[in-house]
Design goal:
single chain; 724 residues; alpha/beta; Prim-pol fold; Rossmann fold; 4 domains; six-stranded mixed sheet; four-stranded parallel sheet; 21 strands; elongated
Length: 724
Amino acid sequence: MSDGPSILLESARTYLARGYAVIPVPARKKIPVLKGWTDLRLSESDLPAHFNGTGNIGVLLGEPSGWLVDVDLDCEEAVALAPKFLPPTGAMSGRPGKPASHWWYVCDGMKTRKHQDPVSKKMIVELRSTGAQTVVGPSIHPSGEPYDPLDGEPAVVDAGELAAAVAALAEAVTEARHGRKEAIASQPPSLGNDRYPAGDAVLRRAAAYLDRIPPAISGSGGHSRTYTAATAMVHGFGLDPDVAFNLLWDRYNPRCQPPWSEKELRHKVSDAACKPHDRPHGWLRDAGPAEASDVDLSGFNPESRRAVVDRPRSERPPDPGPFPDHLLRVPGFIEQVVAYNLATATRPQPVLALAAAICLQAVLAARKVRDERGNRTNVYCVGVAPSGAGKDNARKVNKNILFAADMVEHEGNEDLASDAGLITAVETEPAVLFQIDEFGRFLRTIGDPKKAPHLFNVLTALMKLYSSADTVFRGKAYADKKRNKVVDQPCVSVYGTTVPEHFFESLTADSLSDGFIARLLVFESAETPARQRAKALSVPEPLKQAAEWWGAQQPGGNLFKEHPKPIVVETTPQAGEVFDALASTVDAELGKPDETGRSLWARAEEKACRLALIYACSANAEKPVIDANAASWACDLSTYLTRRMLYIAHEWVADGVFDARQKRVVRVVRKAGGKISRSELCRKTQWLTQRERQEVIDNLLETQQLRQEEESSSTRPKVVYALA
């Protein structure tokens, strides 16, 4: 190979990054000699050992390469006629002496098919798939000519459609050579039956046209695609509606996913026959035999559709941005805890320090205060930060303060083994804070009964406990009355820490709709702070004394443990106005049709009331008052966290496998700065097959979530995708 080993190796890496399985082929040869090459699956680390000198590169076809297939045109007639029969594709290759002799597609389930001349027995065209390979550039042909590299994007086509098109091409070559006396075994279904008069050229051409049309796929423009096919039959070829229906029913409908019912397909044909068209009746029929294949397929080309159709863009909630600085300060106890946290942290995390301090104040005041509407201080907070960003320190600070104040009983176990264990812990200490690391993994586990059935009911128990702080909690009913658990006014708080991916991947449509996620206050720190040489400091005396003061409060007297009587914290009229404004916002959001938004906004005011109560306790423990400052901070925080969770849900929660793939690809583009080259996107989405990737990209472009651009480079224009 003239370009040297480095080009060979880099090319092999590029093909592998696109999802193509590569194999070594001897220099200036077309056939691999390595034993067992059909089963060879090279990883990137294997490539240097196989592409370290002169040689050629072969691409395994079919299943090993995400169902990449090659239509190899073995004669001049096939090359010349291919544009009239084969589906359009963005990937063609060849060599100087035989340009455009390889047409590439992605075709799930395709099998290798060979079409030979019935007289000479020489190959006309070969459809190569699993078990075959094709040599690609920068390899060198035995003649000394360089092969073209496999660039561009292979079209995604149906196996039946491609097989029929290749068979029709082979038949056309045979007819050109020998007339119609000779036939080949793999031609399309004959039209010589009772429905279609044998020898009718118009019907044959209409059938060939249908064989080129991609099938209707539910959820991917299937209705418009089928209507366009029906229009081509009744208007383009001027067929009687009944004849057009029979053609569509026999040749097109079996490929649709799912197939149309007879009633549905007849309705499509009837609509197509009745509605006016902007081209003359019979424009495809009258084009004549010479132009029979020169038909407009733009209606089935995603690129051209995007150019002319203004499709509605998927509505995306706005991102409220990073955590607002003005919400970081809560006067009094919380501010002091945050300061102690940041002073002792190797990597200071103000947002996470605030979240943990809120939970600490919540458990200290648990069962001891309530607002005028009965809200208590129990909250479920989650601190989200990258791995190694300093998530642990906030949990340690809470633990150390409770230990210094001799209140360790108010910190629950770090692991929950079952819902029964959770209820037992709450029965033992109804005012309790559970601090859980790897909270995202925890959610993913307890949310799936198949992974851990004994943990699945923990989620239900947490939801019930959240709503039972102002009433009596009753656990499961057992025949043995001694096992029945009853707790008066349990006040359970949770502080969990997690990395973003684990938490966001744990979000599901069910967890959003059932209200558990709506109960969470999710505090995010997107960056890893700079390291500081922090000294280990004992708990400051003011913090210890403040915690001890709360521990000594027992409203309800000797029966406080069993039946507390919380102090009512007053809400000022100005604070009431702030809450009323939030309530109006919530009502407006609840009036929208978005189910995810409804579930999240439904808890926004309740969370604001609890946060305001915590703020009041922090600012003045002995005489707490929910004033305008407390209400404004709480409502602003609840609103921000709700809007942020709406944005996260849109980005991560999917309505199925395909939607999940789309959202993940969008996140890849966003992480790359909002724009990414085609090759880089392929490298970063190797978890997708070639076909899956192209389907996702096509739909993102069609729904205007992405836009495709071209950027100039030293060789050829580079395709890039940008967020729309």
